[in-house]
Design goal:
alpha/beta; Rossmann fold; six-stranded parallel β-sheet; 8 helices; 8 strands
């Protein structure tokens, strides 16, 4: 029997975070084990208990120096267990930190420690997404092997219509299946 693949799902503080709840279930339905890592800012939008209930697994969040339940270096342990690191939604802030090699929280450290592929599904305001710096950061991440699932056009949180909506969950799951 083949080993169940583990996806570390990074969740950041985008209004599209509510779609990550459906993504957890859809990935599980596709046969993957999902472990969620939330940024501290994401916890302002949704509580970790929601992802814990959906995934059936411990949710990791916040900084690097949380009280450990047992002795393990969390970012290395999570990175080693991952067959794929998927960040959905990925904010402009997170994309910029990864492009600059900044590791100032658990999720960015997991990404830098991971030998597994890293896949990002950006979600942000169109102006932020199309900004030259964000586009340069995405280009830089692609050159080091990160896979980007482009956002779609649609109604943004600001009420305008434009690029920056998280890709459809079906599209994200399809890309994950292709990659794994």
């Amino acid at each position: 029997m083949p080993k169940v693949k583990t996806i570390v799902l990074g969740v950041t503080a985008s209004i599209a975070i509510y779609k990550a709840c459906d993504l957890v279930r859809r990935l599980q339905d596709a046969g993957y084990r999902v472990t969620v890592v939330m940024t501290k800012e994401a916890e302002e939008l949704i509580r970790p208990i929601v992802f814990q209930s959906l995934s059936g697994n411990k949710v990791y969040s916040g900084g690097l120096f949380a009280q450990a339940e047992n002795w393990e270096i969390e970012h290395v342990c999570l990175a080693d267990k991952a067959d794929l690191v998927l960040i959905a939604p990925a904010t402009a802030n997170l994309i910029a930190k990864l492009a600059g090699g900044i590791c100032d929280d658990l999720l960015t450290c997991v990404c830098l420690a991971a030998k597994a592929p890293v896949m990002l599904a950006p979600a942000m305001n169109e102006n932020m997404y199309l900004h030259k710096l964000t586009q340069e950061n995405i280009k830089k991440l692609k050159t080091v092997g990160y896979k980007i699932i482009a956002p779609k056009s649609g109604k943004l949180a600001c009420g305008k219509i434009g690029a920056g909506c998280l890709a459809d969950i079906d599209t994200i799951v399809k890309e994950v299946k292709k990659y794994l």
